[in-house]
Amino acid sequence: MPESKGRKKAAYTPPRTARAAAQGPNPRWFAPLMVALMVLGLLWVVTYYISGTHELPVPQIGRWNLAAGFALMLSGFLMTTRWR
């Protein structure tokens, strides 16, 4: 049975992009803001549930308080994907 020929060229490795090399560590305020947004969102939702019929923290928006709390938590969570 005939043997296959070996590979003559080295495997292609793409060059490093300037964007990857330019990224450095996050600013000092990034991590505290990320944690603060998640905690604030959690407190917002817990306050809404504990207040019962008073619908705090913002009575005018009613059940949209849940959306506001989850939006805060989600924004903090999305910041974790950019943390270096």
From TrEMBL:
<feature type="transmembrane region" description="Helical">
    <location>
        <begin position="29"/>
        <end position="50"/>
    </location>
</feature>
<dbReference type="InterPro" id="IPR009619">
    <property type="entry name" value="CrgA"/>
</dbReference>
<keyword id="KW-1133">Transmembrane helix</keyword>
<keyword id="KW-0472">Membrane</keyword>
<dbReference type="GO" id="GO:0051301">
    <property type="term" value="P:cell division"/>
</dbReference>
<keyword id="KW-0812">Transmembrane</keyword>
<feature type="transmembrane region" description="Helical">
    <location>
        <begin position="62"/>
        <end position="80"/>
    </location>
</feature>
<feature type="region of interest" description="Disordered">
    <location>
        <begin position="1"/>
        <end position="23"/>
    </location>
</feature>
<comment type="function">
    <text>Involved in cell division.</text>
</comment>
<keyword id="KW-0132">Cell division</keyword>
<dbReference type="Pfam" id="PF06781">
    <property type="entry name" value="CrgA"/>
</dbReference>
<keyword id="KW-1003">Cell membrane</keyword>
<feature type="compositionally biased region" description="Low complexity">
    <location>
        <begin position="11"/>
        <end position="22"/>
    </location>
</feature>
<protein>
    <recommendedName>
        <fullName>Cell division protein CrgA</fullName>
    </recommendedName>
</protein>
<dbReference type="GO" id="GO:0005886">
    <property type="term" value="C:plasma membrane"/>
</dbReference>
<feature type="compositionally biased region" description="Basic residues">
    <location>
        <begin position="1"/>
        <end position="10"/>
    </location>
</feature>
<comment type="similarity">
    <text>Belongs to the CrgA family.</text>
</comment>
<keyword id="KW-0131">Cell cycle</keyword>
